[in-house]
Amino acid sequence: MINRAVPSGRQMQQRSGLPPHHQRQYSSDQFMLFDSAPGGGGNKWLPHTQQVEYSRMLRSMQKGEFLSSAADQATPLGSRPSSGQHRNGGDVSSSELSPGILDLHSFDTELLPELPIPSMHESASHFGYNGHGRSFDDSDASFSLKHPTGKGSTLPENNVLKSFSVDKEKSGSVAKIKVVVRKRPLNKKEISKKEEDIISIKQRLNSLTVHETKLKVDLTEYVEKHEFVFDAVLDEDVSNDEVYRETVEPIVPAIFRRTKATCFAYGQTGSGKTYTMQPLPLKASQDILRQMYHTHRNQGFQLFVSFFEIYGGKLFDLLNDRRKLCMREDGKQQVCIVGLQEYRVSNVDSIRELIEKGNATRSTGTTGANEESSRSHAILQLVIKRSVDGSESKPPRSIGKLSFIDLAGSERGADTTDNDKQTRIEGAEINKSLLALKECIRALDNDQVHIPFRGSKLTEVLRDSFVGDSRTVMISCISPNSGSCEHTLNTLRYADRVKSLSKGNNPKKDTSINSNIRESTTLPLSSALPTVPSYNGNNGYIVTENNRYGWSKQVDKETSLLSNMDYVSSRREGRREEVSAAPYTNYYKEQSRGSTPADDSDSSEEAYETSKPLRKGKVEAYSAPSFGDKGRTVDPQPKWKDVPDVDTNRFYSDDDLSTLLKEEDDLVFAHRRQVEETINIVREEMELLEEADQPGNQLDEYISRLNSILAQKAAGIVNLQARLAHFQRRLMEHNVLVSSLGP
Ligand SMILES: Nc1ncnc2c1ncn2[C@@H]1O[C@H](COP(=O)(O)OP(=O)(O)OP(=O)(O)O)[C@@H](O)[C@H]1O
């Protein structure tokens, strides 16, 4: 019997003869608390829930919640001594760090009863500060000194009330999804190879251009420009402090109000994900503690830290000697990470030590592009809890959570220079999880009934961070060198796809779509896809509302012909899908030629994209404008007037259409499951083979077992493909019928 237990860390490397993993050396420089950052990092997040926030604030004021802020006036933080620097402290005291089992989904989203407001003069010790290490209050003065912009700084005593409202306002105006791109400088190796910097950035316009060198047929070179616009674009000289201010700082106040926020870095290996992500949790912890002891003083909040990694589809506790963790689902489909230790922390030093410990334990290895490449997804979670009755006798209940995810390099699956078996397994797993992450974000935004959380361990773990009141920040890290052009474009397209999902929050993005296209010759798919509400020529009356997962989306209030079209193409129970003209244009042309739609956006989506354009078919039939033209300006009255006045009831009540759409979804879903299942089986079998690859073991038996499973799966996939093709034919017939009944 073969022992299938997965060894962790070095053991595995030695046994299986893997390329040398080594533990990441943590550089404390990256944790300088207070970079001398230039001011004006500016919160550019756009408002979308201000009215809700405003009334919430009014209610809070009526309930006297601001009393707690007033308590701070009695203990001015600025009067405390400060160090604010990395202190060479001893070990984290065990009394400070109380390990426990983290149930990721034990979040009770019901409101806790209002706590009685303790005396104005109660001290921070009430919250478990026991005198070990530096207390938060000790370092407070540094907070006020080191924020040149005043953001997140300690305000004068008579401004405490204002500080609270500023915090509320700050997080209230945070978009559901924010996509930020960060470019790193050329490194020594790239400079010595005389590689060019092919990224130009207009930071004020939040835009960047990739200058891709290409060859014509006659072998002359030309430069193709790809321009992208994001919520923020950070140039190579931007400090980590500024990155924090742009990304995480605005969402910190929200996690005291039951928000679950996720910040993740995405990009190819060596593009700066770890460099960007590592300082963020510490900076966020500082702000959280500041708010715990200041804005939310005496309200019984506690801060907990946990840190684990997902490596090869398995979970390991980075704060507990890489102990293997189990993920379980209870009857209510709530996922728990059994055995994960979380530590209660009350000062910055303790958190720093935990983060250092976790980072040092992470699985890393050497790749062509990065000597300390992350081979895992590392997830650090800061959880805010609160005791139900204000005492410590009962276990505290989770209130909000901030997850930081340093994703493994995005291109690992395709990395042919590191072509050993283990790397390929890692790559497959990484690609799968990145794809699943995008699928989840897309499904959530579409208000789909089925959210494919089970697509990967990563998305399963993050499940609770995506439902309810959530915020997501994606930091796309890019390398500037010409040799990375292809990976950089892939990263930007992935980011662009995620960005396109958040247009509901961000009116600015509608205009940015135009600029995305302005200079591009090759357009990123989602950049070229304006959403229907953006082009509402009737009255421009567009509102944002949250879908049932709490993600905002735009809804066109008018029952215009346009919205009827939308309805036709996405008539699903509880679902309104944003319809875009461009992809269908392509699709329709392709279909007329009898081929399948080209994937012009993201090759990794091939398996999933086939279903998407199908529903967009009607738009082309009505001569929707093409958005691919250079120098395009958006016509506020696009060619919707060409749309014939179709007898909508006739088709919309057509049960056949619903059945077709349902069938399509089922097929695609089944297809996807088959593929995922196959990947899983292959991965498991490869692990088995690897173990069996020793004298005395029955290798042949494993190979034949693997072959028979693969053959079965292949037959299943062929069958599904045939059914999918059949379905596509039927839908085409349907479309032709609809077109023939036009004006
Ligand atoms: N903005 C930056 N400024 C200066 N140096 C940077 C920056 N970003 C990254 N670097 C340097 O580039 C190298 C690679 O960065 P990092 O390890 O963060 O990449 P990564 O994306 O996490 O890679 P992997 O996916 O392989 O783990 C490091 O030496 C890091 O110090």
State the helical fraction. Answer: 25-40%
Q: Report Rg.
A: 27 Å
Q: How many H/I helices?
A: 22
Q: How is the biggest beta sheet arranged? A: 11 strands, mixed
What is the CATH-assigned architecture of the largest domain? Answer: 3-Layer(aba) Sandwich
The portion of residues forming beta strands comes to 5-15%
Description:
It is a single chain. This protein has three domains: 373 residues, Kinesin (3-Layer(aba) Sandwich); 117 residues, no CATH class; 100 residues. It is built from 22 helices and 18 strands. The longest helix is centred in the C-terminal third of the chain and has 42 residues. The structure holds adenosine-5'-triphosphate (ATP). Adenosine-5'-triphosphate (ATP) binds next to helix 8 and strand 13. Adenosine-5'-triphosphate binds next to helix 8 and strand 13.
Keywords summarizing the entry:
alpha+beta, Kinesin, 3 domains, eleven-stranded mixed sheet, 22 helices, globular, disordered N terminus, binds adenosine-5'-triphosphate, ATP-binding, nucleotide-binding, P-loop_NTPase
Secondary structure elements and pairings:
Layout: H1 9-16, H2 50-63, H3 67-73, H4 140-146, H5 160-172, E1 177-183, H6 188-192, E2 199-202, E3 207-215, E4 221-229, E5 232-234, H7 240-247, E6 260-266, H8 273-277, H9 279-293, E7 301-311, E8 314-317, E9 323-329, E10 335-338, E11 343-345, H10 348-361, E12 364-365, E13 373-374, E14 377-386, E15 397-406, H11 421-445, H12 457-466, E16 470-478, H13 485-500, H14 507-518, E17 542-546, E18 552-556, H15 561-569, H16 581-592, H17 606-609, H18 611-614, H19 617-621, H20 648-652, H21 655-692, H22 699-740
Parallel strand pairs: 1-5, 1-16, 6-15, 6-16
Antiparallel strand pairs: 2-3, 3-4, 7-8, 7-11, 7-14, 8-9, 9-10, 12-13, 14-15, 17-18
